[in-house]
Amino acid sequence: MVLTNTANPIVVLLSSGIDSVVYAPGNLFLLTNYCSESIRAGDIIVFRIQGRGLFIFHRVIRVHEKENGYVKFLTKGDFNYVDDRGLYAPGQVWLEKKDVVGKIHSICWHVDHHNGRTPSTGLSCFDSGGILCIKEL
């Protein structure tokens, strides 16, 4: 948590609501949630709804920011016709910074492949600086 400022620095995507091969089920994501890290429309964030345990990966479609620094967000899955207000807690119409688990910093693609006769699984991890690791499990 010290390096990433999030209690959940690594999360796995269970199903895809985002239109991209990068955001495919089974991929791992390394998250950061720094106070100085701004969230803008178009960013994909990971958030949790009060009273629910699942992580949700959706795109920010609207940001409202006040002069005092208070920020609230509206999100939507790329494949959804409407925004996420129906997913939020009863009475909640915006997400706040406290609801955000983090922004995606790095992606670890989950790769299934066959090595000769033995099936195996590998992970390829990338960030903005390039390849972090390629590991056969």
Write the SSE topology:
Elements: E1 10-12, E2 28-32, E3 44-47, E4 56-65, E5 71-76, E6 95-96, E7 100-115, E8 118-127, E9 130-136
Antiparallel strand pairs: 1-2, 2-7, 3-4, 3-7, 4-5, 5-6, 7-8, 8-9
Care to describe what's here?
With 137 residues, the chain is mainly beta. It has a single domain (10-136), classed as Umud Fragment, subunit A, CATH 2.10.109. The protein has strands at residues 10-12, 28-32, 44-47, 56-65, 71-76, 95-96, 100-115, 118-127, 130-136. Strand 4 (56-65) and strand 5 (71-76) form a beta hairpin.
Q: Could you tell me the radius of gyration in angstroms?
A: 16 Å
- Per DSSP, what share of the residues sits in E-state strands of 2 or more residues? over 45%
* Structural class category: mainly beta
Mean pLDDT: 72
Helix proportion range: under 10%
> Tell me, what is the CATH class?
Mainly Beta
**How many domain modules?**
1
What's the end-to-end separation, in Å? 25 Å
Q: What is the N-to-C order of secondary-structure elements (H for helix, E for strand)?
A: EEEEEEEEE
Report the principal-axis shape.
globular
Counting DSSP E segments of at least 2 residues, the number of strands comes to 9
CATH architecture type = Ribbon
Biggest sheet overview: 9 strands, antiparallel
Low-confidence stretches: 112-124, 126-137
Number of helices: 0
The fold-level CATH name is Umud Fragment, subunit A
GO molecular function: peptidase activity
Organism: Adineta steineri
GO biological process, one term: signal peptide processing
InterPro entries: Peptidase_S26B
